[in-house]
Design a protein that fits this description.
The chain is mainly alpha-helical and about 60 residues long. It has one domain. It is about 85% helix and about 0% strand. It contains two helices and no strands.
Length: about 60
C-alpha cells in the first residue's frame, strides 16, 4: 500500500470509530424501542466497516 492509501485507511478508521461511538451514545439516550434498534444496527454496521478497514492493514 502507498503512503497515501495508508493515510486514507487511517482516516477511515477514525471516522468509523467516531460514528460507532456516537451511535452507542445515542442508543443509551433513546427510549423508543424501534429507534433504539435502528441506532444499534447503525452502530453494528460501522463496527463492521471498521473491521473491514482493519483487515486491509493485515
Amino acid at each position: 500500500m502507498t503512503n497515501k492509501e495508508l493515510l486514507y485507511v487511517e482516516d477511515a478508521l477514525g471516522h468509523e470509530q467516531y460514528i460507532s461511538t456516537q451511535c452507542r451514545e445515542t442508543c443509551n439516550q433513546i427510549q423508543d424501542a424501534e429507534l433504539k434498534s435502528f441506532a444499534e444496527s447503525l452502530e453494528q454496521r460501522h463496527k463492521n466497516l471498521f473491521s473491514g478497514f482493519m483487515s486491509l492493514l493485515k
